Amino acid sequence: MSTLFNRDIISIGDLSKDEIQAVLGQAAEFEQQLARGERATVGQTLLNRVLATVFYEPSTRTRLSFESAMNRLGGRVVSVAEAKTSSSAAKGETIYDSGRMLESYADVIVQRHPATGSARALADAAGVPVINAGDGTGEHPTQALLDLYTIQREGAEGGALRSLDGLHVAMVGDLKNGRTVHSLSKALSHWNVTLSYVAPPELAMPQDVVSFVQSRGATVHQTTDVTAALKTADIAYITRIQQERFPSVEEYLKLKGVYVISADVVARAKPGIAIMHPLPRVDEITTDVDTLPNAAYFRQARNGVFVRMALLAMVLGAV
Hints:
- With 319 residues, the chain is α/β, with parallel strands linked by helices.
- The chain is 39% helix and 14% strand.
């Protein structure tokens, strides 16, 4: 049985390198099984198990991919979208009380919440595994896992996942508020990687993340020059400027559109560079990139289903 059985997944730091690799390996196995048409077999994995998805912030990809993953595994889903206004939270119910209640209805809980630390608070209350689907500007561990899987798949040859050692990953955009880049940086630091952080000073990667990855041996470059960074990067991980994290519209507009990745920008980047984005995008990747073989972001979203299948099956002890 997996070492993740009955575990909460709150931070990517909750997982060792071996455990991360086990999740990615299981994701590849599920993807291959589905490609071979073994839906009936896969559909027995979590038969009669129940997932609760509770989202206090808007979500399309994360919520639907978790629900799709559970359905493909044969489980069932109970869901609260827009939980901030459509659940008892609107009446003042605490996260602690929500956790005690939800454990009666589901075998595993996936929560997204605007407050950093909220996932840990729910896990402390609930008697079933809790998976963090994003807590404010904190972390998004399952996004980091699917990002790692995508990086390996994009460089795959002959069906094998490529090694992460030696890769240069450039992260571009709102690195201050982007929980996806916080988690991905920490996950990548298990390997011998170079990380280029490309952001205006106001949106630079938090120093605690920089210090953490450097302490693990990662090479870090911080710059505002996206063109230079992409000339040597294997992966360009683009993020949107997050309007909802700014104190005012005026502050947001000062930085909106600071980096725009177009087909021309890709043409001047390192040949074969993969363009990733956790989505949704606003204006930071133009649509003329979509048809390029480098555009990995829609494949990235698809990969979320396989990775979340793996994680659900592992925390519920089915593999």
